[in-house]
Amino acid sequence: MSYRDLRNFTEMMRALGYNRLISMENFRTPNFTLTADILVWLVKRFDPDADIHDLYMTEEDRVLLVRSAAEFMALKGNVMLNTKRIYQADGYAVRELLKIAGLLYEALRAHGNDVAPSWGTPSGTSIDVTSYIQDLRLSRELASQVTSKGAVIYDLLAKEIEMREARNSSINNLLEMSKVEIAIKEAITFSKESIQNTKSLIENVAITENSLDAKIEKKQSELERNQKRLQTLKKVRPAFLEEFEKLEVELQGLYQEYITRTRCIAYLEQQQEEAQVAEQERMQKRQKETRKLMEELQMEDARRLMESEMGMGDTPVLMSSKPTRRLRTATASKMRLTTGRGRVYGSMTAADDDENSYDSDSDLLLDEDDDGNSEFLGSGDDMEGLPLESKSEPSDDDF
Amino acid sequence: MQLKLSFPKDAEHQDTVSCVSWNNTEEVFSCGDDHVLKKWNLLTTDSQKICEFPEELNPLDFHCFSRNIGIRKTGQDQMLIASSDGKFHLLGKSGRIEKTVEAHKGAVLVGQWAPDGASFLTAGEDGQVKIWSRSGMLRTVPVHASGVPIYCACWGPDSNNFLYTQGKHLVIKSLLPNVKPNRWRAHEGLILKVAWEQINGRIVSGGEDGRYKVWDSYGSLVFNSMLHEHPITSIAWSPNGEMFAVGSFNTLRLCDKSGWSQYLDKPDTGSLYSIAWSADGTQLAAACANRKVLLAHVIGRRVEWGPLEATTTRRKTVVMSNAVHSGSDTLEFPERVIHLALAYKHLVVVTTTQCYVHNINNINTPVIIDLREGSVYMVLLAEKHMILVERSSIGVYSYDGRLISSPKWPSLNTATLNPSQISLGPDCIAARDQADEKVIQIFDINGKEIGTPLSHTTQIGEIGLSNGGSAFERLLAFVDRTRDLYIATVHPRPSTSRKIDKLGSVVQSFKWNSHLNIIAAIQDTSLTLWYYPFIIFVDKKLLRRTAVIKESSEFGHRPQVTTYVGNHVGIRRSDGALINSGVSPYLAILHGYSMSGSWKDALRLCRMVKDEALWACLAVMATQGKEIDTAESAYAAINQFDKVLYLQHIREIKLKPVQMAEMSLLGGNVQEAEALLLQNGMIFRAIMTNISTHNWERALEIATRNRTHIDTVLLYRQRFMDRLGKQEANEKFNMLRSNVEINEEQIDVKVQYELEKEKDRS
To answer: Where is the segment annotated Disordered (chain A) (predicted)?
Structure first.
């Protein structure tokens, strides 16, 4: 492997703009990947549309790649490549690749040198070709024109025989001067009239234009005036505005105050409501308690009554008779009042805990005679209400 | 800095140009794949075909070695061409192939002469490096085949080692036996080019990864460039080591020595295969892949001094501008401008054959000096003189164009003289010896050696002479290899040796002030100013107090002091940015007062400024000036009570010479004090001074020479030895002991008598 070849090769590739750095050490050992990459790149550089096999994974691919590249270069570039050496992918391959790269580099250099001194000539070649193409098209068109014109001329010449007589006759036919004059004069007058017409039309146009201008001006001034008026109106402060603003501010303040007050009231009302609800709850609780107590008492009374009734029959073993009697009478009267409900009461004792039953119970309580209810309310906590009632009852109904 | 490119139009190569080389400062050789060797003359802009090579010879590398490069002489001795067929060819002057040697298997990629021209190396694709003698006889094969091609190799600053590429690695190999090669991985891609600079020893390498990197000579990275689009194909250092050029595909870049890009051009050239600088470092030629030869010269070089600035705007034009008056002068020269120097109110412009010395006050009428040899390597300016370093000699000129002297020393080689290793003071010149890096040669303006050359224990890097004060206060500062800063007195005082002492350590770079004896140095990353370095010879304890350290983050990494003019220190950051740092102006005023001896004003100044460093400076200055009152107040201000007490003691001494001698002692100058006393006939006191400084032998010497007080010396010596509990080991004392009788009482009487006598004298 020659150091010089490799050095020149890297330099050429650098100048050609190969996108990867080629190190001096790259071809010390066979490096087919890089060789193939460079080969494909160079061929593409030669002809971007070149059809080249660009796989190199398998042996067949490699052979195919090298062969297709060599064929391409031999055909297009007239460069003979030693395929065996390229396949070696070492320093010798560089020497082969150098042939292609050198060709491209020389082209680049020659072009660069031409460009450097003057700008006109070098790009001429490409332009020349296109101009030739244009010439070609032009000449083709001309050729077709020539034939068509020729055909037309031939036709016309064929007509000539007929036309000749007519022409000759018309040439021979002398025109009368006066007729000609009159005709010409008529034509003149006609044209004059038309000129007049158009002139008047033009004038009209001018007039309308003027009027339109005047209108536009008028409108313009009007607009300006209105604009000014608008401005002045905008500037002028209407009377009472200050007072209005003051009042507005005041109103704002008042409204604020109102808002706060309303809020306070609302709050207080809410408080009150809450207090009422709390009160009611407490009351209901108490009622429930009293009801329960009462029921117990009634039950007790009923039991005692039954016991005393039974005891009257067989055993007189009893406590003091008087209060018992009283109770009995009270319960009796109650029972009388609530006919048939006594049984229901009896059954209620068991479902004392039940909330629903309690509610119905309270309903029952409320449904009871108003007297009893009001009495309960009035008595409050006092349990003395019961004995009081029991005291008064005997006086009411004298047995 | 910029490059102005040109392409010779009329004649071109017929194929890729692969190599260029300079014949002398005006002629370029080029050859390429068209087997033709061409010569391009830059003055007459014509080209000439020298010869045609045989068909099979494809040159890959080409190097002209010229021993004497001058404008008028065609100085090439021999040309070396490496070709792709594994041979190298030695060509004579006419281009005739004199010798062809089969050198490598595969192409020979490199052929390069050693800097001394005694040998050359070739490297090839087989991975070998071979060293050949001047006549083409194989000497050694330092690198054996490794299978990795060596794309580039180059010689080190001395011809003892060379650098070569090995894939992604760089290797420094020494020719000396038993030295391990230094090998490091340098690039991500293959390294294609490498260049080693002769003066500072920096290396720059470029490769296929599209980067160029700057290394120091130990292989540590200094700069890493940004990514280029294409591989770097050529690199070359300018001969003075200030900049280098990098070539790539359609790219030419000029960088300063720290790697920062100064200029970039994209000429239509293809890859630049080779770049070569002319010997004066102002022009370069490059071989282009598209058959052209690129020529370029450097313009836009700039020098400045205070408000003045001079720039080369074109090849033959220098524009001089003054920032204060906002005016500018354009100076046109008949020839190409090679060097430019501006300092001490003088602008010196060196062209190819002449040297123009412009006075700033009268810029349009220069003094013109005809150059003796026509190639100037360096220009150094001082207050009244300047130095032109030419090809074979160093010339000291006065500003009116008179040659004063040309100092010489045996190992002088002006071509490789490093600008940081030669220094010009107002009245002397110092240069590091090139053969022995531990030695500094010192001359006065008239070319006479001052004392013996200064020799140090380790290799010396940079040197600098102070610019202020009188000739006897001249100081030489130098940094050695371990980066310690030392200062030394230049003029040895009578009967004393040169004093050397260490001022600071880890000093990266330093500069003397342009007019005063103040040093500004970069220590690590901070700027240190030694207000009065001489103090180190007087009182080391005060050194700290007179040093001011400025810490600043803006100095960045690896800053460097470049200028110190007036009250401004110019610092160059590693990225090339210049930073100006102000210095207290009082210091300059104080130095001025002390030089003119107006101590009252100096005291007033110090009282006003109330700076301890200034007080310390004044204390030592006053001691040096033998001003007791000023020194006393200054020492009092910095709480040196012992000094104050001693000064009060001195004041009580009535005898003037004794007083002076005591002041000298306080200033640390025992020899001076002794000389003063001896001059004034106070032998006894001189002896006693030596005794009290334990300078026994000197005391004895004075005593024996004057034949008095020998016994006194002996007695004091004996007492001293008894106190230490040691035996006398000095032969002289032992001998005299046996001869002289010591009577203590008598001696005491004698001493008393001497003291009385002194009192009488006062």
So the answer is: 338-399
- Residue showing tokens 């290899």: B481
Q: Does residue B618 contact residue B606 with C-beta atoms inside 8 Å?
A: yes
Instruction: Tell me the average confidence (pLDDT) per consecutive run of 10 residues in chain B, 762 residues long.
Output: 83 84 83 86 81 85 70 58 88 81 88 85 89 87 84 87 90 87 90 88 90 89 88 90 90 88 89 88 88 88 87 89 85 88 90 88 87 82 88 86 86 78 87 85 84 84 85 85 87 68 86 88 86 82 83 80 87 82 86 85 87 86 83 86 86 79 78 79 80 81 79 82 82 78 78 77 66
**Which chain A residues are Cβ-neighbours of B87 within 8 angstroms?**
none
A246 token code pair: 């003051």
**Please, are residues B606 and B637 in contact by the beta-carbon 8 Å criterion?**
yes
Total Cβ atoms within 10 A of residue A327? 19
Please indicate whether the domains covering B300-406 and B419-577 agree at the CATH topology level.
Answer: no
Do A26 and A107 fall within a single domain?
yes
Q: Is A19 on the interface with B (CB under 8 A)?
A: no
Which among A3, A4, A109 has CB closest to B290? A109
CB count in 10 Å sphere of residue B368: 11
Fold of B419-577: Methylamine Dehydrogenase; Chain H (2.130.10)
**Angle of helix B731-739 relative to helix B696-706, nearest 10 degrees?**
40
- Identify the residue whose tokens are 């007297």: A371
3-class DSSP string for B453-484: CEECCCCEEEEEECCCCCHHHCEEEEEECCCC
pLDDT number for residue B496:
60
Parse chain B into domains and list their residue ranges.
2-299, 300-406, 419-577
Same domain, A134 and A54: no
Determine the Cα–Cα distance for residues B343 and B328; give it in Å rounded to an integer. 17
The range of the structural domain enclosing residue A86 comes to 3-115
